[in-house]
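Researcher: We're teaching a course module on how sequence relates to structure. For the next exercise, students receive a sequence and then see the predicted structure as tokens, so they can try to spot secondary structure elements on their own. Here is the exercise chain.
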Amino acid sequence: SAAGEQASSDGAGFFKKNRSLLREGHDDAYEVMRAEQANYSVSIMCKELEVSRSGFYAWLKRGGAAKRAEAEAVVVAEIKTAHKTVLIIN
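Model: And here is the predicted structure for the students to work with:
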């Protein structure tokens, strides 16, 4: 159908199917948007992922992905230290 063709051409189907995977908050949605920015318009992605354009651009300006990767690296280091401690104790 024409509506189905339009949904697939503007990416709406892709984002509607994957919205349930992005329940952790806006950061996950913004990560997808940053990755897909060359393929889809920011306006369409914001609409389909139910986030604001201004929020996305503010996230980018704050360093979005880099900041998150840095925080995740800290957590991974803490987990590794905890595992080493458990192994030494046992």
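Model: If you want an answer key for the exercise: The CA atoms of residues 72 and 78 lie 10 Å apart. Helices lie at 2-10, 12-18, 26-36, 42-49, 53-61, 64-89.
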